[in-house]
Design goal:
Blueprint: H1 11-62, H2 76-79, E1 88-94, E2 101-107, E3 119-123, E4 128-131
Antiparallel strand pairs: 1-2, 2-3, 3-4
Length: 137
């Protein structure tokens, strides 16, 4: 008796392949999302640095820092108190005597899940801080 040639896969083989792919996806997806969040931090850091440089230019001309966005020569997106890509909300504070400033970028929207770097800040001395305990700078 001749055996018929078998073409294709059995249902069991297909199910094993699906289970293996599911396990790989379950491991890879969280790692991928973490990398995406880390990459988006560049948006916040670059915004903080750009506003800091604009504050220093303003200080050079006026011998004081400003908390008014329109006084700074920066792009219009930052003047709307958002980073270029919109992943961070910007807050600019100055002391009463206008001799110090702090610029803070707070994660918003899709970036809000980045609890390791919820905020990224810099002051007039160039001191960089962050909240959440992550390696943000």
């Amino acid at each position: 008796m001749k055996r018929a040639l078998r073409n294709g896969f059995t249902l069991l083989e297909l199910m094993v392949a699906v289970v293996i792919l599911s396990i790989l996806a379950a491991i890879a997806y969280p790692s991928y999302m973490n990398q995406v969040r880390e990459t988006r931090r560049i948006d916040g850091k670059s915004a903080v640095l750009e506003v800091s440089m604009a504050e220093e230019r303003y200080y050079t001309k006026n011998k004081a820092y400003t908390s008014t966005w329109s006084d700074l020569s920066i792009n219009s997106t930052l003047k709307s108190e958002k980073s270029d890509k919109g992943y961070y909300k910007l807050t600019l504070t100055t002391s009463e005597d206008a001799t110090t400033f702090t610029i803070t970028a707070t994660a918003t929207g899709a970036q809000k899940d980045d609890t390791a770097c919820a905020t990224i800040s810099m002051n007039q001395r160039g001191e960089k801080t962050s909240t959440g305990g992550g390696q943000c700078w």
